[in-house]
């Protein structure tokens, strides 16, 4: 019996794929850092039963129309705004994602970005590299304390809760805003539910962990930034679309926020000409929230397990529902 074809849109380690080759004929794009060209994706999807794709791969009407034999699309991410779920449903294609396995690693990165922004870590490193460190002075590259301050978490899902646990270890007061109140989470981590406006006004650190939806698009606009303390640090590890970047740039230039940490952007990837990169009080990262070897391997294994489970008639493990 002919094995179903699985196509992977990036080169991934063979040792992770090897155990699954008994179930599938596996093919993949040969480059790790460059996305598969659109014409090759369409050619490969035309006779594939399964696709493992990345956030940068647009899975739309054209893809689902071309993939007549396609049964499952496994997205190597929690977010799935790159996939047209309505078109997938019309084509009767199961869509899966990777929730849970990347929670702690993404929270680590979020808190690291918060610390780096507050304590001017990247700026200080560049200061030495530029051979500017000639003397010690009391306020040389002085940043903001994190311990004992107030953190405002916008979006209290798995990652939001994980960030709150880390904040608790720093003795921080924890405020959060979410679409719905989560009283059990409040008891577990000692967080306080507040309105979005109150969170912006009270928090010393504001961190966005919300999904990309029509409701969250540009929720961090000029009005939001002006409500923050001028000493506040803003961190975004969710999706670039939740921030109005021109408004953020204006707020930075007007000194309406003290520092910013960004792992995501409205259009990715960005290049060295992006205006936010020119600001010394902005730390920019290339969307590496879950980028630890252990976590990315678990994500890939979950994608493979989803594909295997669907083709064995057991249903998806982590199916995305409309």
TrEMBL record:
SUPFAM superfamilies in the record, alphabetically?
Answer: Formate/glycerate dehydrogenase catalytic domain-like, NAD(P)-binding Rossmann-fold domains
Residue ranges of every copy of the D-isomer specific 2-hydroxyacid dehydrogenase catalytic domain listed in the record: 8-320
Known EC number(s)? 1.1.1.-
Q: What class of enzyme is it?
A: oxidoreductase
| TM ranges | none
Protein keywords:
Oxidoreductase
Under InterPro entries, the record lists: D-isomer_2-hydroxyacid_DH, D-isomer_2_OHA_DH_cat_dom, D-isomer_DH_CS, D-isomer_DH_CS1, D-isomer_DH_NAD-bd, NAD(P)-bd_dom_sf
Molecular function GO terms recorded: oxidoreductase activity
Q: Where is the D-isomer specific 2-hydroxyacid dehydrogenase NAD-binding domain?
A: 111-289
Cited Pfam families: 2-Hacid_dh, 2-Hacid_dh_C
Regarding protein family, the annotation reads: Belongs to the D-isomer specific 2-hydroxyacid dehydrogenase family.
Q: Where is the signal peptide?
A: none
UniProt keyword annotation of Signal present: no
The protein here is known as: 2-hydroxyacid dehydrogenase
- CDD domains for this protein: GDH (cd05301)
